[in-house]
Design goal:
Blueprint lengths: L7 E6 L4 E8 L2 E10 L5 H5 L7 E5 L3 E2 L18 E3 L2 E2 L12 H7 L3 E3 L4 H11 L2 E8 L7 H9 L9 H4 L5 E3 L9 E7 L4 H8 L3 E7 L4 H5 L5 E4 L10 H7 L8 E4 L1 H9 L3 E18 L5 E13 L7 E7 L5 E6 L4 E4 L15 H11 L1
Parallel strand pairs: 3-4, 4-6, 5-7, 6-8, 11-12, 11-13, 13-14, 14-19
Antiparallel strand pairs: 1-2, 1-9, 2-8, 3-9, 10-12, 15-16, 15-17, 17-18
Helix pairs in contact: 8-9
Length: 370
């Protein structure tokens, strides 16, 4: 248990049920869609992943914070999840790279945390009922929060109608170069829909220069980078709200190699005429089995998404390339002739597993051959 100066906390769901326990992090009230992550590690990467914007993150693994917070494990410069719910938050982390506790990390970012609740029961509830709006309040006074008011606030939230991408995307173009660029250096335009920093790191490690563009970049602005290829990143929210991104990408599918990751996969799905749907509770964790339909092998993948592409709605010139073995949802597709491919999972996969990290090597090879 963390030492949080006697803070108390409460989680109130839109159905009126509530869970109480010690609070940690910052005092205040957070609103979001309650989701769960099944990973045993990677809480810092998850909290700083822009894809969690608008979502109260609950970890299924019971002990969180035992290796602290480091300078190396950020996926962005701040916490994006509005609140954090765990079974037990460790107050005495042990790791040579740790610079602070999970409590001070949340407090410094103004994020509310709640521990001491039955996360197993909550995960079962979300699996049965689906993701639901909720509020987390952390307080220090003796007066209990108004449960009915918090439930009403949660009920007013419609996650699918909020464009979270515009809240987390880069404000303008940012260029990131490899450590030692040379004549073999390739250039990629990366549309930032909430990109994890690991994507740019993995690309520059492969001698690829990256021009990071805001989510609302036009086709002309993308081409002005003179890219050898295009990547559409991960990010939060409903892809149906991003029709402008799909329209900007659509003319480029026959011009340069294109690769979509997570939300980028869904955006390309819309760009080619496919449809997406909201999942009951989504895929969030580091243990999702995915079958590659090309070689028949099964890979364990890192995932974080609440929407999926309906593979049956894709045009005939596109074929399914990956399938989730838990629920058979589409995990990737590719054009039968053009260098256009997507994956629903995260090949950068920090903190892991790195089963499909080689997809960046494949994309580098496509850039060289095209």
């Amino acid at each position: 248990m963390v030492e949080a100066a006697g803070l108390k906390g409460i989680l109130v769901l839109s159905d009126g049920s509530f869970f109480e326990g010690p609070g940690f992090g910052a005092e205040g009230t957070a609103l979001g869609e309650l989701v769960f992550n099944t990973a045993m590690t990677g809480y810092q990467e998850a909290l700083t992943d822009p894809s969690y914007a608008g979502q109260i993150l609950m970890m299924a693994y019971p002990l969180i914070g035992n290796y602290g917070v480091s300078e190396e494990d950020y996926e962005s410069r701040k916490i994006h999840a509005p609140a954090f719910v765990v079974r037990e938050a460790c107050g005495l982390p042990v790791h040579m790279g740790s610079v602070e506790t999970i409590h001070s990390f949340l407090e410094r970012n103004g994020t509310q945390g709640l521990e001491g609740v039955d996360t197993r029961a909550l995960v079962r509830k979300v699996r049965t009922r689906g993701v639901m709006p909720a509020c987390v309040q952390v307080y220090s006074g003796k007066t209990k929060p108004d449960v009915e008011a918090l439930a009403a606030k949660a009920n007013a939230l419609d996650y699918s109608k909020i464009n979270f991408v515009e809240k987390v995307s880069a404000a303008g173009r940012v260029d990131v170069a490899p450590a030692k660029p040379d004549s073999r250096t390739k250039k990629v335009a990366l549309i930032d829909c909430g990109a994890k920093e690991s994507i740019a790191r993995d690309l520059t490690m492969r001698n690829i220069s990256v021009s990071i563009l805001p989510w609302n970049a036009s086709t002309g602005e993308i081409l002005a980078c003179e890219p050898d290829g295009l990547i559409i990143s991960n990010g939060p929210g409903d892809p149906t709200l991003l029709s402008n991104v799909a329209e900007a990408v659509k003319p480029l599918l026959e011009k340069i190699p294109v690769f979509g990751i997570c939300l980028g996969h869904q955006i390309i799905g819309h760009a080619v005429g496919g449809k997406t749907f909201k999942m009951k509770f989504g895929h969030r964790g580091a243990n999702h089995p995915v079958k590659c339909l090309e070689d028949g092998k099964v890979y364990i993948t890192s995932q974080n998404h609440g929407f999926a592409v309906d593979g049956k709605t894709l045009p005939r010139e596109y074929e399914e390339s990956y399938c989730n073995l838990n629920d058979r949802t589409n995990e990737g597709f590719r054009h039968r002739e053009l260098p256009v491919s997507t994956v629903q999972f995260h090949p950068e996969a920090n903190p892991g597993p790195l089963d499909k990290n080689a997809l960046f090597d494949r994309f580098r090879k496509v850039l060289e051959e095209y």
